[in-house]
Amino acid sequence: MNLNDFLANTLPITIIELLAALAGSYFILKTKPKTRDRYLVLYLWITFIVEVIGAYAPIAYFTEYKYFAFVEDTPFRRNHWLYNLYTLYSYLFLSCYFILQLRNKKWKLILNVILVLFGISALLNLIFSGVYFDGEAQFTLLIGTLILVISIILFYFELLQSDLILQLKKFLPMYISVGILVFSLCVTPVDIFSKYFNVENTVYVDLRNNVFLYTNIFMYSMFTIGFIICSRKT
What we know:
By secondary structure, the chain is mostly helical. The protein contains eight helices and no strands. The longest helix has 29 residues, at 202-230. The radius of gyration is 19 Å and the shape is globular.
């Protein structure tokens, strides 16, 4: 893998993330969305900014530190420090987004308590496990995915019992949930083996790159479609 291969895999993802964030901004301008949907758009802009900033590490590596030479021989030579924080933030925010959709107070209370405990535990894991700079936090990935998937399943369960099932075409959280669910169920199993992600293991590298590329395109396309369709309602 070289710099051209890296750009070929990441530029489409970055572009589709930008399109989703722009579509979300258009959605806000055209409608008067709920606060949680406004924060969702902010989350998408943060995601785009993180992707742009995080590109420094592979660019430095593939150019043999011709660019961003100041990070060579420092803990910041890899971008794990950035993505470990972003991944935790992402799971906390998205889980909270779907928990807020629930009407069952008991479920909301239980999930909120679990989410707080998860956030504290994940931070402690980053601090004391030594993984913060050197790899992906498997604890965050596994537990975060589990909480997020459970939140979405409960959201679906309540949706089936409500009148909103007849208005799914213009119900934004439905588009968001489908995109996130497909992405999480496809990417997390691949991420579990992230320690094998190196230039010598071409089979895993190609698999991981393809999974990330197509699932990201699917997820952010769902976001974009959802924002555009839902922006048409009065």
